[in-house]
Amino acid sequence: MKQKQRNICRTGGSLICLLAGFILQVPAQPAAHQALVYKIEIKKEINQTTQIYLSRGLNEAQSLGADAVLIHLNTYGGLLDPADSMRTAILYSPVPVYVFIDNNAASAGALISLACRKIYMRKGASMGAATVVDGSGEAMPDKYQSYMRSMMRSTAEAHGKDTIIQGRDTSYRWKRDPQIAEAMVDDRVAIPNLIDSGKTLTFTAGEALQWGYCDGIAGSVEEVVTQYLGFREYRLASYDPSWLDEARGFLMHPVLQSLLILLILGGIYFELQTPGVGFPLGAAVVAAVLYFAPLYMEGLAANWEILLFVIGVILVILEVFVIPGFGVAGIGGMTLMVSGFTLGLLNNTAFHFDGIGGAEVGRAFVTVWIGIILGMACVLWLSHRIGRRGLFRRVALMADLEEAVSSPALGGLAGKDGFAATVLRPSGKVIIEGEIYDGISESGFIDRGTPVRVVRFEQAQVYVEKTPERTPERTS
Questions:
Q1: Which residue of 50, 147, 297, 396 has the lowest C-beta tally within 10 Å?
Q2: Closest Cα to residue 92, out of 125, 121, 58?
């Protein structure tokens, strides 16, 4: 009997050991996955700053392994070129991008919303009115509207079609009707039961939901995430813009970029007119840094594009100081400078321009050439006006030099011979009868040490021309 009890105990102990081993071998159940939703707030005019917000936010979301990106949008629109870049970034983002329209998505905001995978709107919000206008609010010419229509239509088409099966019939329907997107730009587009010709389409939240341009109406970001995206357990991370983002966006505005180009060209010109490291050169260097630095930080301007500009400046300096006249070096230098300015604005890889649209290229050319034309005009104006009135009147020499010097004495210099004390290109210094005067060449470039003859005296300057070098007379 006791032996039987021992056997039962041994058997029970073995079963307990086996059960314990089985429990230890079963892996622990993993905790429920907590989704990461990355929020980017865009609640201002669409411009270079908001483009930086989106670009850096999408990169950060991807690096964190986010499950979704949610744009919290409220804007009346803005610049077309940044909006185009933003919609392209959204369409090709590896992380799905959704948008919650919190009141307004007008103009460029409608284009950005249309690029997102799903659109959610607050009750009372609106979306549309994407006609391209100028600074005064007037509609731009049709070529601009045509490009905007194309972008809106292609963005809607990018989301594809739904397959509808009814019995034995299969049909396909656009998820977002491209004609509706076009009607947001062109008032000539009429859609039955929606919009008549002569009106530009703007959706309310309810209308957008009815016509497939809204995927849900929500009152908050949290409601969008839990009710529509389906993330019950989630962590919300947000992009926090820095002052550096604001500064880069400000410096990348086309108007300011044109002004910086103006300062660069004007500073270089005035520095070459008055050799020596001074204020014009300092202004040009600072303007060049402010122009290229934000483009370099955003990955637009590469090292070689900045190098093109630097080599161009060096060639222009060599043309002025070393090589007489204005030839290959000068033309080549200006070409390289313009190329550096323009390529720095484009998101190209070397000389491959894949994915760069016509609007981006056009904006780059317009920005650069506005700066060049304004720079040339400013140089011509300042050459005659600087110091006579306004800001520089206290630091400029305002005395009438004609009265300060003896005009009869200088007038008597006409016909006198001397030589160039500095390079005349065409202005510089000349030495006549042992005295140094401000001189201007009337026979083109005159190198230092070249014999010259005074032609006339005007406005406290002697005008000179080259004279042939005299050869010593032979004695028999």
A1: 396
A2: 58
Q: What are phi and psi of 380, to 5 degrees?
A: -65, -40
CB atoms under 10 Å from CB of 64, counted, come to 13
* Residue 430 · residue 419 · CB < 8 Å: yes
- Across 214-267, the runs of DSSP E, i.e. the strands, are 216-217, 234-238
Q: Report the length, in residues, of the chain.
A: 476
Long-range contacts of 88-95, Cβ-Cβ distance < 8 Å, separation of 24 or more: 88/115, 88/355, 89/54, 89/55, 89/58, 90/54, 90/58, 90/115, 90/116, 91/115, 91/155, 91/158, 93/58, 93/62, 93/69, 94/62, 95/38, 95/58, 95/61, 95/62, 95/66, 95/67, 95/68, 95/69
pLDDT digits (tens, 9 = 90+) for 185-212: 988 999 999 998 888 999 999 999 999 9
Phi/psi at 368 (nearest 5 deg)? -70, -45
Q: Indicate the pTM of the whole model.
A: 0.66
